[in-house]
Design a protein that fits this description.
The protein is built from 15 helices and 17 strands. It is α/β, with parallel strands linked by helices and 441 residues long. The chain has two domains: 123 residues, Urease, subunit C, domain 1 (Roll), CATH 2.30.40; 293 residues, Alpha-Beta Barrel (TIM Barrel). The chain has a seven-stranded mixed β-sheet. Strands 5-6-7-9 form a four-stranded parallel β-sheet. A four-stranded parallel β-sheet has the order 11-12-13-14. The longest helix is centred in the first third of the chain and has 17 residues. Bound molecules: guanine and zinc ion. The site of zinc ion has 6 residues, from strand 5.
Length: 441
């Protein structure tokens, strides 16, 4: 007779239990009082299996129920969904923090010369890897990035994201005027190259292809029309561009498109608004534009460190969110001056103060996670801790420097404990990063 099987056989599916404090949103803190929009577990656990979040709950019960799971204990650190950066330009990594210019001369003086290098596949791969490693070090696990007009830049981005298991959106920038020859394409080439890249990458693994006309000044009406046609054929793709960032830019758009009543109309005319549209910046909006953004289900993306760095203006986060326009949050690397979504939340707070509205830490955190994910229509996969979501989870140290620690020590609740890290924290606060259930930091 053979021996009986041992009574407590090990499970065949490896499970991981992350332990720490947890904040978990139950509602949108712009439509529910912020304090009531989330639950806080002072000692909680998240069960990961097969690259997904399976269960979340109080630590004692979870440990008892999942005794064989591998445990990773982050102590008093706060477990959150990985940050979602809804607007970045990975090719601008090397020129971040370049001095002294505003949007149009910054593009001409710094951005376009750097982007001209991305026809070189090896250079593109080097920068894509460097950028994503910096993002991960800062707790960002999902990004919507512009690439350059070179298809090589798109391939490099998706390959680098795939190697790190990340859910990203990205796309070839379409631009056929007002740019150096090395960056210009044509309406037909932009359509053909975008379509080929879309077919290769959209929904391959965790990738989403984003149709990416740079902005109205660098596209002819014919090119915007071609991008609108491509989006109509693939409405499941995101569409990303820029809108009303600086007053000089808006005047330029008015001179290039004299028949359109405002900036948004230059996109609207070609079908480039609607669910899945991501309009970066959206600062100087007219009432008609705000109404059309709301009616059409288009999203806007706030890029606060960029808005101060290149002197763009004051975004109305509270007003737009209350108008039920989906709002995402983003670094806008490298017009933005930081890779950190913590620094970005701090800057969003400061800009909103200038606008006379005090954003609650719950609203800031929501913008950096679920808000950005909703803007990208990816909230079923990223940006929350809901069971079934990808296991993209970070552990945030709420006492990562002496200055932060001494302030957080006086906190009366979790929001007061978190806020100093939003205002003063950086990559030193990121103690753990899990992407698709794999530890990456
Ligand atoms: N508008 C058009 N292109 C860009 C860009 O690369 N960065 C920013 N901040 N604004 C833009
Ligand atoms: Zn941008």
């Amino acid at each position: 007779m053979s021996a009986a099987a041992p009574p407590t056989a090990e499970p065949t599916v490896p499970e991981t239990l992350l332990l720490g404090q947890i904040i978990d949103f139950t509602a949108d803190p712009f439509s529910t009082p912020p304090q009531e929009a989330a639950r806080h577990l002072s000692r909680g656990a998240i069960l990961l299996r097969g690259g997904k979040i399976v269960e979340i709950g109080p630590a004692a019960r979870m440990v008892e129920a999942h005794r064989t799971a591998r445990r990773v204990d982050y102590g008093a650190a706060l477990l959150l969904p990985g940050f979602v950066d809804a607007h970045a330009h990975y090719p601008q990594t090397g020129i971040i923090a370049s001095w002294g210019k505003r949007l149009i001369d910054w593009l001409e003086g710094y951005t376009f010369p750097e982007e001209s290098r991305f026809g070189d596949a090896l250079y593109a791969a080097t920068i894509a890897g460097r950028y994503l490693d910096l993002a991960i070090a800062n707790g960002t696990t999902t990004i919507a990035s512009f690439c350059t007009s070179h298809p090589e830049s798109v391939t490099a981005f998706f390959q680098a994201a795939q190697a790190r298991g990340m859910a990203v959106a990205g796309g070839k920038v379409a631009m056929d005027r007002n740019a150096p020859k090395a960056l210009r394409d044509t309406p037909q080439r932009a359509y053909d190259e975008s379509k080929a890249l879309l077919k290769r990458w959209h929904r391959q693994g965790r990738a989403r292809y984003a149709i990416t006309p740079r902005f109205s000044p660098t596209s002819t009406p014919e090119q915007l029309e071609a991008m609108g046609a491509l989006w109509a054929e693939h409405p499941d793709c995101p569409m990303q561009t820029h809108l009303s960032e600086q007053v000089e830019e808006i005047a330029w758009v008015a001179s290039l498109f004299p028949d359109d009543e405002d900036y948004l109309a230059t996109y609207e005319r070609f079908g480039l608004i609607g669910p899945g549209a991501l309009f970066g910046h959206a600062i100087h909006l007219k009432a008609r534009e705000r109404a059309r953004l709301a009616e059409s289900g288009s999203a806007v993306v706030h890029c606060p460190t960029s808005n101060t760095f290149i002197g763009s203006g004051v975004f109305d986060a509270m007003g737009l969110a209350h108008q039920r326009i989906p709002v995402g949050l983003a670094t806008d690397t490298g017009g933005g001056s930081s890779f950190s979504m913590l620094r970005t939340m701090g800057a969003a707070y400061e800009i909103s103060q200038l606008n006379g509205a005090v954003l609650h830490p719950a609203q800031l955190l929501w913008l950096a996670t679920e808000g950005s994910a909703r803007a990208m229509r990816m909230e079923a996969e990223v940006g929350t801790l809901a069971p079934g979501s990808a296991a993209d989870v970070i552990a945030l140290d709420l006492a990562s420097t002496p200055a932060i620690a001494q302030r957080a020590a006086r906190a009366q609740d979790i929001w007061e404990a978190l806020f100093p890290t939003m205002m003063m924290g950086d990559d030193r606060a990121i103690k753990g990063v899990w992407i698709g259930g794999v530890s990456r930091r």
